[in-house]
Amino acid sequence: MLKTILNDLNFPEGPAFDSNGDLWFVEIHGGTVGRLKKNFELKRFKIEGGRPNGLAVDSRDKIWFCDSGNNRISVLDPDTGDVKTVADSVGGETLNQPNDLAFDSAGNVVFTCPGSSRKEPTGYVCAITSKGVKKIADGKYFPNGLAFSADGKTLYIAETYRHRIWKGDWNAEKAEWTNAAPWAEVGGPIGPDGMAFGNDGNLYVAVYASRHIKAVSPEGLVVKMYELGGNNPTNCAFAPEGGLVVTEAEMGRLHYIDNKVHGVRLFKK
Question: Whole-model pTM above 0.90?
Answer without folding.
Answer: yes
